[in-house]
Amino acid sequence: MADNKEIIPPPYDVNAKWDAxxxxxxxxxxxxSLGGAFGGLLLFSQFSSSSPHFLxxxxxxxxxxxxxxxAFGAGLGIGSAYTECSRLFEGSPAKSAAPKMVENPAPxxVENPAPxxxxxxxxxxxxxSVPPQH
Length: 134
What we know:
It is a single-pass membrane protein. Component of the MICOS complex, a large protein complex of the mitochondrial inner membrane that plays crucial roles in the maintenance of crista junctions, inner membrane architecture, and formation of contact sites to the outer membrane. By secondary structure, the protein is mainly alpha-helical. It contains 2 helices and no strands. The chain has a domain at 10-49 and 58-88.
């Protein structure tokens, strides 16, 4: 008998998508954590000559600041992997639709200035509502 295995097309193969997502998540987590560790060692070494005078309660050479940079890098890696995996599964929860561009013509500006009224005129009697007749 011939093989009766059904071949699942790639867009519907969920197992392959999960494998790709797990691989991507592990790689990005590890690489960004290593990048955060390197940045933490570079920026927050104990021999750093920069001491902030505005934050006296935080020591830049402390292990806490170096671990914080590792955690920041790990968070960046996991977040970028999550975004890529949600695109892979075509169900991004944070889809932001582009604003619709509506082609409305600009309103026409009609230059119709108001008539100039001369308030100081000898023909108009300001005390009476009826102008004098000539």
